[in-house]
Amino acid sequence: MKVSVLSEELIIPSCATPSNLNTYRLSFIDQQLPPYYIPLILYYTYHESSTITQATMTIKLKTALSQTLAHFYPLAGRLVKNQNTIDCADQGVWFSVARVESSLLDIIKCPMIEELNQLVSVGIGSSYTEEQLAIQVNLFDCGGIAIGVCVSHRIADACSFSSFVSHWFAKAKGEISLNGPVLDSAALFPPMESHEYSRNPKDPTGQAPLQSLVTKRFEFSSLAINKLKREVIKDSSTVVNPTKVEVVTALIWKCGTEALDDCKGSVAFHAVNFRRKMEPPLEDHQFGNIFQMASAVTNQTADMAGLVAELRGSFGKIDSGYLKSLTGENGVEIAKANFKQIGKVMIQEGVGVFRFSSWCRFSVNEGDFGWGKPVWISSADFNDENCIILIDSRFDDGIEAWVVMDEEHMKKFEQNAELLAIMAS
């Protein structure tokens, strides 16, 4: 697959950001996040009956992006050197257009990570830059389009990312009445006066060298997930109505633990979006990193039912009482402890650490910008060992899991008999 960049430019907000909004403060939860990028690619096929050309859609996307950035103005800013604030002087978002000499459907039928990486902006990955957002529109020979979007995790979580993309695409369709983002997370979770993320993403302590990591996609159909659910219900007297995210997380956690060398046990950390758990609930378009990490512990002998029970119990701890304390007087220390727990576990000998994030049920999955809904949504390569992203399957009510592991561990993981049996269901 050959990808040639046709144009590159900065897109600035359609309206100048007021001077009183030129400094956007990160919340103390934002401050705990590493300055690496979350990649997302949305794929759209072209129908011969359509009268909209690739050139027209590219212009619509540029115009709508400029209009959207007037509301999501921190994304057009730059992270200042102390990493605690965003300078919102309308510096702009990097926007590139590329020609792809391939069929979009061929990419979807047999995706290769090395090729998907070419569909997101060059230079976006785990390395730190001051830019908050980068976009690459890929024009396929078949007439289809793939839109690669990368956002800094320092400023936004997956829900905020989804809210931005949904707003952008709605603007491209000509919708006028839209809910803009709520940009006051620093008021909810006041930041520390001075804080810099301590881990160098190019040399993450306790992790394998980045060059030994590989990213692979694993598909779980609705039939396979229902099989897992029946297995859990049969073996458990306490777990009722397990969710698809719970059972897929449990299976990957179990098989991943078995793939690690000399592993005595493992911990699964799972990001929990708590917008709707707050009292009163926050809106889905509350911008920023509005999540905490639930943690569950297991050993290599645990069965699926036991793992689901552990996960559900860990999710349940992030309740209204916990969140009340998070916004209280000692909220900073509680948030710091939540993230520091990952680092402490990572340096324990013989303990595996897996980090999960679910993008299921987010509005971005319905991202229609005037050319229909995406036929597929994918991630790309991201160097973060034992990190797993779960995305809704576009083909049924299944899940696609994007898994990053050490190369040798990945070989054992993908050959796990239990994993292969479920995926073959």
Walk me through what this model shows:
This protein has 425 residues and is an alpha+beta fold. It has two domains: 2-185, Chloramphenicol Acetyltransferase (2-Layer Sandwich); 213-359 and 381-423, Chloramphenicol Acetyltransferase (2-Layer Sandwich), CATH 3.30.559.10. 30% of the residues lie in helices and 24% in strands. The strands form three sheets. Strands 1-6-7-8-3-13 form a six-stranded mixed beta sheet, covered by helices on one side. Strands 9-15-14-12-10-11 form a six-stranded mixed beta sheet, with helices on both faces. The radius of gyration is 21 Å and the shape is globular.
Kindly estimate the percentage of residues that lie in beta strands according to DSSP: 15-25%
Q: Could you please say which CATH topology of the largest domain applies here?
A: Chloramphenicol Acetyltransferase
Shape: globular
Strand order of the largest sheet: 1-6-7-8-3-13
Rg on CA atoms, Å: 21 Å
Main sheet attributes: strand count, strand direction, barrel closure: 6 strands, mixed
Q: What structural class should be given to the helix and strand makeup?
A: alpha+beta
Number of domains: 2
Number of helices: 12
What is the level 1 CATH name of the largest domain? Alpha Beta
